[in-house]
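Worked example 2:
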Amino acid sequence: MTKDLTTGSPMKLILGFSVPLLFGFLFQQFYNLVDTIIVGRFLGVDALAAVGSTGSLNFLILGFCMGICNGFSIPVSHKFGAKDYVGMRKTVANGIWLAVGFAAVFTVLTAVFCQEMLVWMKTPADILETAYTYILVIFLGIPASFLYNMLSGIIRALGDSKTPVVFLILSSFINIGLDLFFIINLHMGVFGAALATVIAQLVSGIGCLIFMIKKFEILHIRKEEWRLEPAMLKALCGMGIPMGLQYSITAIGCVILQAATNTLGSAAVAAVTAAGRITGFLACPFDAMGSTMATYGGQNVGAGQLDRLGKGLKSCVLLGAGYSVIALLVSILWGDSLAILFVEEAERAIVADVQTFLIINTICYFPLALVNIIRFLIQGMGFPTFAILAGVFEMIARSAAGIWLVPALGYFGACIGGPLAWILADVFLIPAYFRVSKQLRRRMDNNM
């Protein structure tokens, strides 16, 4: 069930690994899309705005959780690439202990303080209560998020990008079915939408766990391998916490930008919400490329195959450039049609705002491709601190957009926050890649 990415054509390996991941991300975004469509169509624009107003806060917290789990999986890929299976199992065991602890702490803290955070973000008063209901349920489901992201990250580290997709597809259909049942039949409102999301992710996590136990014999952790090892815990935290901070630092800029957007009123928030769901869907290939490069980089560094890193980077950048053109054409030709999925056709102003957001963002999708490809490759190479610094640049750009551009330019300022963040991150990441490549080669030469 494992896959070795240290031999063979980089382009073929990257395509073979990333395509299943792409389907997983697409289905994940698909049920996010359907969730938003159902909320907008059956509960109205105010409910859509309420769910959307929590998006950056959701990303701030759950992004940190996902980053930690992705970081924990990188040492696993290093051990797997080096064929050190005992060390790999010990790494997995210590990572699981850490994930349990982080999940407990974050669930309690976010549940206690989520209302204060929404108030700080200037959530419009007419949607504050609805937004609080939605995000509270999502935060109470943090253990389910940790379960899926931790286990799927371990599975991907071993070269299997298909299995997590299977369970995501299953959970997508469960989520859609529960959305319709909870909202239409039981009239549970946004509480039902959030509950459906948590249940669906829990199902996918449990599915990954059962599959790992039955199919991955090299992951059968022995009793003595469950022992906590301080050095290993430190190494895992040294990789996971920086990656989590990368997501959260980036999300701080999103929160500031969201707070500024909230001042534009519920209609603008609804437009950004709908456009954000669509751009999230269109950006799935970049997410798949990023996750692929993290595993590709991790395995090849573990195997000492440093020459393959640059070849893999070139192949993935070509894929990113080609897809960026396709995404822009989709936004230009069908952006208004996609907007109508979320709101009534009569809401012409919101439809026009959605398409404006889509076109401005997809024009800059190649810089976004570079952010994902290079940042995750650097992480896989074992340099998570650089990911934090890239996140700082993104935070600065989005914060500047929220503080100055939205008040000055209105909705247009909200549209350009993301593209500015991607471009500024690339200014840092491109030279950073060449620097860490040299450092890694010197480090490996000194160990020979």
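DSSP finds 17 helices and no strands in the chain. The radius of gyration is 21 Å.
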